[in-house]
């Protein structure tokens, strides 16, 4: 992996995004503004939801804010790469990047480096505002959170690579990002704990990586639990991450080989 | 420029590529597993030496771009081999990419919200140009394509020709061993095109000994820039050689004479029906001279016979302002090669 090339692509994406000044500032402000209605809705629902989230911080506002921030990160992980590659195939940019002698993994990581950092910055802003509004977060658990976020990123970029591979080979993602985002949103415990969803759907939620990652992050940040106490969720998430990333790499490799055989790497 | 195989920078052997033919829904449902294929490149072989300019000529759909994309590792060949500086592009594409740089013609493959300099700095890092050399190299290629004065302008504000020049500058950054160009001067104004060709010849080919493979429809590039050309049609290599020699070979014995007595018996003996294309290469000054007429002649026996005829005309007092062999245009050259090949097959 060529870090200098990744940094170059990151810088180019940042300069491009920052050149759309209104959009750039609006994205930051939206992140902050989102927190305020969530605060009031959470307060209203606290008596009803409080007992169901005893193991995940007890405070429904904190529960929701962490859920929203992690969900935004997952959406970015799943959706940004296929969207970007689709656009870059259409304008010939993908071919120009793959022609560089830095290797495909470097190119792909470079393409998503800016969205990852931007989403993390927006999340940090939201969490900072939430802290100002009274949410208590355990900063001592940052290493645990970093590990879980990394595993979530690996798992969801694995899915993203499958979708990107389909885009490269067949010009469609088969709606995989949309399915994963919808399933993660409703079954991954973003808006309510997985314990309250009906039993038959609960079974499905066991196959959603976000279920484990989000629960572990809430327990670390809001309950102050250390890694040994999060081991079950972290190990399951790591298994998901390993399998999904391996699947993603395989899919992407096959897709690139297919596109190179068919000559469709830059065909619109 | 003659090259021994040992000098070859690019070596292509029996390269073949087939693509599936797109079928209609009805046919796909009736015969889901019957794939039909069209051969885009068909058993093509050639060598390109270090510092050589090699032109790919041919009508649209001849296979020129597919050939370039196979050399650039964007398309995997079905059969045959292609090697760059000894590196097989199919077996070791990663290493080949460090040696071969294609000029991607799409203007959208630039960052439009960044300046020309920022675009080049990005690609200099992608092509692993050492940090201490980057600024100098970027300046150098900006100068080559005459964009130094607009280096801090956003690319989105560039004209189409300026973007084309920037795309070329981007390819030059990498200091390639082999440069692949697909109609590189298509959007350039004549002055920029000439300056660009001069750079290619002097800097890349002569000084850096970089091999340049260029697909072109430009006569200037084929005749003046390329040491050798290959004429392709339907994926097959029909002719290979020095463009001017091929043109000479195909030109035949047609001459154009300018005289005030076009009906003179000596001229009538050789006169043939001419057409407007014969006049394409005639000097404008002659075309505008009152009383002087062009006569198309068929003179067998080569330049010696033409010289003898001219001598007789002069001796007999027939005014002749000019007499020269009618050159073959690039279009005519391609057309003749293609027709000759089709007749033979």
Average pLDDT, all residues of chain A: 90
Radius of gyration of chain A: 19 Å
Largest sheet of chain B: 6 strands, mixed
Count every beta strand of chain A, where a strand is a DSSP E run of 2 or more residues: 0
What is the topology, as strand order, of the major beta sheet of chain B?
6-7-8-3-9-10
Q: What is the C-alpha radius of gyration of chain B, as a whole number of Å?
A: 24 Å
- Helix content percent band of chain B: 25-40%
Mean pLDDT of chain B equals 84
What general outline of chain B do the C-alpha atoms trace? Answer: globular
Percentage of residues assigned to helices of chain A: over 70%
What would you call the quaternary organization?
A: heterodimer
Count of all domains of chain A: 1
> Helix segment count of chain A?
10
CATH H-tier superfamily of the largest domain in chain B: P-loop containing nucleotide triphosphate hydrolases
Unreliable stretches of chain A: none
- The structure class of chain A reads mainly alpha
The rounded distance between the terminal residues' Cα atoms of chain B is: 30 Å
Return the string of H and E elements of chain B: EHEEHEEHEHHHEHEHEEHEHHHEHEH
The sequence of SSEs of chain A as H and E is HHHHHHHHHH
Structural class of chain B: alpha/beta
Count of alpha and pi helical runs of chain B? 14
């Amino acid at each position: 992996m060529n870090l200098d090339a990744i940094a170059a692509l990151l810088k180019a994406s940042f300069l491009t995004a920052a050149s759309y000044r209104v959009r750039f500032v609006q994205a930051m402000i939206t992140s902050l503004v989102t927190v305020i209605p969530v605060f009031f809705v959470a307060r209203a629902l606290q008596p009803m939801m409080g007992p169901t989230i005893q193991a995940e911080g007890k405070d429904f506002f904190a529960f929701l804010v962490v859920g929203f921030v992690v969900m935004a990160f997952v959406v970015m992980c799943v959706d940004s790469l296929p969207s970007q590659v689709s656009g870059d195939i259409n304008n010939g940019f993908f071919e120009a990047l793959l022609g560089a002698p830095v290797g495909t993994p470097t190119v792909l990581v470079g393409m998503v480096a800016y969205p990852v950092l931007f989403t993390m910055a927006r999340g940090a802003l939201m969490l900072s505002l939430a802290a100002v509004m009274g949410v208590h977060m355990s900063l001592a658990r940052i290493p645990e959170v970093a590990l879980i976020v990394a595993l979530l990123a690996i798992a969801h970029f694995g899915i993203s690579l499958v979708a990107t591979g389909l885009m490269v080979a067949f010009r469609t993602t088969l709606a995989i990002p949309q399915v994963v985002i919808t399933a993660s949103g409703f079954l991954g415990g973003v808006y309510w704990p997985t314990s309250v969803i009906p039993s038959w759907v609960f079974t499905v939620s066991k196959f959603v990586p976000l279920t484990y990652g989000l629960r572990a992050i809430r327990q670390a940040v809001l309950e102050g639990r250390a890694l040994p106490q999060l081991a079950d969720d972290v190990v399951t998430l790591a298994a998901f991450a390993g399998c999904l990333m391996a699947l993603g790499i395989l899919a992407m490799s096959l897709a690139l080989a297919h596109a190179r055989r068919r000559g469709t790497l830059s065909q619109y | 420029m003659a090259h021994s195989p040992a000098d070859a920078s690019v070596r292509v052997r029996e390269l073949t590529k087939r693509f599936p033919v797109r079928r209609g829904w009805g046919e796909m449902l009736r015969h889901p597993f019957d794939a039909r294929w069209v051969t885009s490149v068909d058993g093509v072989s050639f060598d390109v030496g270090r510092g050589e300019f090699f032109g790919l000529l041919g009508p649209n759909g001849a296979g020129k771009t597919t050939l370039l994309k196979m050399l650039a590792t964007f398309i995997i060949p079905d059969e045959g081999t292609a090697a760059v500086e000894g590196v097989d592009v199919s077996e070791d594409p990663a290493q080949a990419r460090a040696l071969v740089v294609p000029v991607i013609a799409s203007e959208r493959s630039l960052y439009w919200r960044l300046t020309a300099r920022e675009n080049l700095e990005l690609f200099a890092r992608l092509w692993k140009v050492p940090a201490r050399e980057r600024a100098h190299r970027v300046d150098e290629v900006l100068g080559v394509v005459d964009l130094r004065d607009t280096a801090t302008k956003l690319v989105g504000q560039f004209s189409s020709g300026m973007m084309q020049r920037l795309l070329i500058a981007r390819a030059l950054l990498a200091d390639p061993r082999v440069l692949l160009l697909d109609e590189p001067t298509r959007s350039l104004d004549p002055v920029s095109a000439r300056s660009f060709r001069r750079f290619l010849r002097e800097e890349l080919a002569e000084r850096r000994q970089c091999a340049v493979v260029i697909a072109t429809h430009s006569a200037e590039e084929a005749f003046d820039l390329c040491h050798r050309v290959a004429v392709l049609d339907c994926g097959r290599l029909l002719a290979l050689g020095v463009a001017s020699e091929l043109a000479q070979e195909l030109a035949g014995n047609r001459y154009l004479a300018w005289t005030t007595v076009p009906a003179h018996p000596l001229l009538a003996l050789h006169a043939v029906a001419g057409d407007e294309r014969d006049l394409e290469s005639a000097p404008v000054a002659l075309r505008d001279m009152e009383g002087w007429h062009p006569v198309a002649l068929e003179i067998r026996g080569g330049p010696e016979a033409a010289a003898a005829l001219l001598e007789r005309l002069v001796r007999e007092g027939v005014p002749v302002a000019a007499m020269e062999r009618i050159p073959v245009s690039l279009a005519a050259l391609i057309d003749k090669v293609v027709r000759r090949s089709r007749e033979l097959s």
